[in-house]
């Protein structure tokens, strides 16, 4: 049965600035620790070649954890993942944990280290680089009081293989704005070596622009 489509207003000038969170980082934060544990699992699964018995044992343990969390399921506006700006990776385990170091209204610098989970065979996977750029550039595009904008394009140049287990520096810059269009540029360095750079366009949403979400599209195949 098809569920009715709901309309969610995603243009809200009252939303918090993604670089100036209202929640303080808490080193004893249990939710941040949960996400860190999930990252450890992702890395450990990727790095291992367990016996079938151990694979089955761990799969059972992971499903038990998933069932435990499912009893606390909330809608996407209410979930924590992706909204905890003050913890690396915003509390979401898909993208590598990005550590933000400096922020101005038009620039950001940060650091990121990827492990084998994000490997594309002894170097960072090519799909991970845009994830890092989209994370830092989208946050910059939507910070400093600028109303919500969405990524219209993100062009990435791969200049050199990005090493694993090695700190890379990430920089982002707002180049300029023309009407609703915001042009941004990003770079990823390993020391002095330029590993990748990107340029992107973020387009400010019109106040009446809304995101139509079909509840059907959220999926329930669990
Ligand atoms: C508790 C809650 C906390 C919330 C806290 C919020 C804080 C905030 C944090 C944000 C952190 C994450 C932010 C995630 C942002 C995503 O990652 S979004 C995900 C990926 N992107 C998408 O899904 C976007 C999909 N595309 C679209 O929705 C629409 O195409 C867009 C981008 C909104 C533009 O549509 P539109 O408004 O109809 O644009 P339109 O009027 O046709 O064009 C406007 C101008 O842009 C140009 N343009 C549009 N698209 C393009 C293109 N692809 N190429 C070149 N030019 C283009 C047009 O040519 C036009 O130029 P001018 O004629 O004005 O010179």
TrEMBL record:
It is a peripheral membrane protein. Residues 124-189 form the Thioesterase domain. SUPFAM superfamilies: Thioesterase/thiol ester dehydrase-isomerase. It catalyses: octanoyl-CoA + H2O = octanoate + CoA + H(+); tetradecanoyl-CoA + H2O = tetradecanoate + CoA + H(+); (5Z,8Z,11Z,14Z)-eicosatetraenoyl-CoA + H2O = (5Z,8Z,11Z,14Z)-eicosatetraenoate + CoA + H(+); dodecanoyl-CoA + H2O = dodecanoate + CoA + H(+). Its EC number is 3.1.2.2. Its main location: membrane. It comes from the Bacteria. It is found in: Cell projection, Ruffle membrane; Cytoplasm; Membrane. Keywords: Apoptosis, Cell membrane, Cell projection, Cytoplasm, Fatty acid metabolism, Hydrolase, Lipid metabolism, Membrane, Transit peptide. It is an enzyme of class 3 (hydrolase). InterPro entries: HotDog_dom_sf, THEM4/THEM5_acyl-CoA_thioest, Thioestr_dom. Belongs to the THEM4/THEM5 thioesterase family. This is Acyl-coenzyme A thioesterase THEM4. It comes from Rhodococcus olei. The lineage of its organism: Bacteria, Bacillati, Actinomycetota, Actinomycetes, Mycobacteriales.
């Amino acid at each position: 049965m098809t569920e009715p489509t709901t309309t969610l207003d995603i243009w809200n000038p009252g939303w918090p600035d993604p670089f100036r969170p209202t929640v303080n980082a808490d080193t004893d934060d249990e939710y941040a620790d949960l996400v860190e544990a999930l990252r450890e699992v992702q890395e450990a699964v990727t790095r291992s070649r367990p016996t079938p018995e151990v694979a089955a044992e761990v799969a059972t343990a992971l499903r038990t954890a998933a069932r435990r969390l499912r009893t606390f399921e909330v809608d996407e506006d209410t979930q924590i993942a992706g909204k905890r700006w003050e913890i690396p990776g915003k509390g979401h385990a898909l993208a590598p944990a990005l550590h933000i170091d400096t922020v101005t209204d038009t620039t950001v610098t940060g650091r990121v280290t990827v492990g084998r989970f994000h490997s594309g065979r002894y170097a960072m996977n090519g799909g991970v680089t845009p994830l890092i750029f989209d994370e830092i550039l989208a946050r910059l595009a939507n910070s400093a009081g600028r109303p919500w904008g969405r990524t219209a394009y993100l062009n990435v140049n791969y200049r050199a293989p990005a090493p694993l287990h090695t700190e890379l520096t990430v920089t982002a810059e707002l180049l300029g704005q023309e009407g609703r269009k915001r042009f941004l540029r990003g770079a990823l360095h390993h020391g002095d070596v330029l590993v990748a750079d990107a340029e992107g366009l973020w387009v400010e949403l019109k106040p009446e622009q809304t995101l139509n979400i079909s509840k059907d599209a959220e999926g329930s195949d669990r």
